[in-house]
Amino acid sequence: MLHITNSKVAGFNVRWASFHGFSILFNNPGEHCLRPRSSKIYDLNNNVHTDSSLQFYKILDEGIIRLDNDFLTNQFLFCALPPTTYHVTLWGGLNIRHISQIDLQHRPIVESFLSDLPESLCDISADDILQLPSMSLLCTKRNWDINFCFDRLAIWNDTVLVAVLRPESNSVSGFEQLSEERRQLNKQVNDRFGVITDSEIYKPHVSLGYFANKEGAQKALDFVDDWNKWFNDALKSTVLSFQNASIYGLTDMITFFKMINEETCNATV
Question: In degrees, to the nearest 5, what angle opens at C-alpha 190 toward C-alphas 189 and 193?
Answer without folding.
Answer: 75
